[in-house]
Every structure is written in C-alpha cells, then in structure tokens.
C-alpha cells in the first residue's frame, strides 16, 4: 500500500491545527492525552497525512478554546478536505501522486525548479515527454494518460493567477538527445517560445561542486502555508515539509540561481546549441 500523501487541503487543515495548538502552549502528547486521541494519529492530522472528522476537529478546538472565526475556518477545511481537487474531477483515473502535484503547483505563489539532466515536465513538448514516459516499455495507455496530466499541468501554470516560475536547467539537459535529434531540436525551439514570465535559465557545465550536482529538486512557496520541497526520482517521488530541510533546499536554490546565466544569456545559449545541432 502506498504511503498517504498530504494534499494541499489536508495540509492547510493540519497546519491550522498545529499552529493553534502551539499558540495555546500545548505539546502534541499533552493535547493527545487531554482529548483521548493517539499521539501518532494527531501527528498525522497535523501533517495532513490523515483527515480528521469534523467532530474530531471539534474535540480538539474545544480543548484549545479557539475563537469562533478560526473554529469556523477549520471546520470548513475539515468538511472539504476529502473532496477531489480540480484535476481529480477532470481525470478521476489519474494517479494520486500526479493530481496532488498538480494541485500544489496550481496553488503555489512561486515555483523554483532545478533540473540538471532533462527539461522540466512543465516545459516539455509532447514528443519529448512521450520519449521519456515510454521508456522501459510502459503501456501506451499509461503513457497517454500521463501526457494528458502533463498537458493540464502546463496549462495551469499559464493561467492568469499562475505562480511565478523559475526553471533552471543544466547544460546537459539541452544536449541529451532524448527521442532523437529532431525531437530535441523541437524541444529547444519550444523553450525559446515560452512566455517570458516562465523564466528559463541555464547552468553551464563545469566549475566546482555545487548542491545541484546531488540531483533535481523544486521549492514551492505559498501565501498561507509553509513552503515545501518536491523531489522526483526514477522510482518514486517525495515531498519534504520539515522546516530545516526546506530551508536547506532554499539555500541550495539561491546558490543555483547565482550560478545560472541571465534570462537573455540563457536564450542566446539555447540558440547556440540549436545552431550546433543544425550544423
């Protein structure tokens, strides 16, 4: 069984419960004892990994003596935390890890991403994405399903209230001939056609060690929730919520940004790679 995933709604409820508990001076185990809730269960609620029932939320808030306004806000979150998000409604068969990621992206105020080896999924052309998703003989139906999810995610970050995006790509991502020369060329031309607000910057190959050599990562920030880090690996993905670890990744993001070419320099760099490939 897959581990539970903290969705944006469940996480908002959990963050509100934890913040209220801490403001009232209650330790987690102290509140658990006072309400008869198992500490592990209360911890899962605060992390957004499990969603408490409305009556369970009422039990906690009664013990914490929360004011009417905040109580109603948390009740509303509890009532709606289990509802499917916008992508789940449109594609009920989509994997939970993808629908949750799409919701996190759509509700963020800013997204920073570092991808050293391949072009970020939100920037990929269909053919480039298909060449990646089809690797290993994945069933065609699954590949097309994931392509549809990727297309919806791409559309979402181009909306009026879309997050501010900063995409850093390693030079290798521009030269790795995924799908072949023509598909790569089409992908590179697509990068030049993206809206300027989807800032694409290149980190050239070479130089000393930097944190980006440890792999790709994304930092997503929100107006009313703590930031999170998303890690996407070969055999799975993970979210990081721990404040200290998130701070480390934010520091790494600043380092990577300092190593990247400017937006104009990056465009010129991409044009240069296209010229090389066309020669």
UniProtKB/TrEMBL annotation:
Residues 17-71 form the HTH cro/C1-type domain. SUPFAM superfamilies: lambda repressor-like DNA-binding domains. Pfam families: DUF5753 (PF19054), HTH_31 (PF13560). One of its GO terms (molecular function) is DNA binding. This is Transcriptional regulator.
């Amino acid at each position: 069984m897959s581990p539970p995933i903290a969705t944006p709604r469940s996480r908002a409820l959990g963050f509100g419960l934890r913040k209220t508990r801490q403001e009232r001076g209650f330790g987690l185990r102290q509140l658990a004892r006072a309400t008869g809730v198992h500490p592990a269960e209360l911890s899962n609620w605060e992390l957004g990994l499990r969603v408490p029932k409305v009556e369970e939320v009422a039990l906690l808030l009664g013990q914490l003596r929360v004011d009417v306004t905040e109580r109603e806000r948390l009740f509303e979150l509890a009532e709606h935390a289990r509802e499917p998000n916008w992508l789940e409604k449109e594609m009920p068969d989509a994997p939970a890890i993808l629908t949750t990621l799409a919701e996190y992206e759509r509700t963020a105020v800013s997204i920073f991403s570092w991808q050293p080896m391949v072009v970020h999924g939100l920037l990929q052309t269909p053919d480039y994405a298909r060449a990646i998703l089809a690797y290993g003989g994945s069933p065609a139906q699954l590949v097309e399903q994931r392509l549809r999810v990727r297309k919806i995610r791409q559309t979402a970050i181009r909306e009026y209230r879309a997050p501010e995006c900063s995409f850093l790509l390693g030079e290798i991502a521009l030269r790795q001939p995924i799908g072949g020369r023509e598909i790569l060329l089409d992908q590179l031309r697509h990068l030049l056609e993206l809206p300027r607000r989807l800032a694409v910057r290149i980190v050239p190959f070479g130089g000393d060690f930097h944190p980006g050599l440890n792999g790709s990562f994304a930092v997503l920030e929100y107006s009313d929730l703590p930031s999170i880090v998303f890690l996407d690996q070969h055999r799975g993905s993970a979210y990081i919520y721990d404040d200290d670890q998130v701070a480390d990744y934010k520091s790494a993001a600043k380092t990577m940004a300092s190593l990247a070419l400017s937006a104009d320099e990056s465009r010129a760099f991409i044009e240069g790679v296209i010229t090389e490939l066309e020669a």
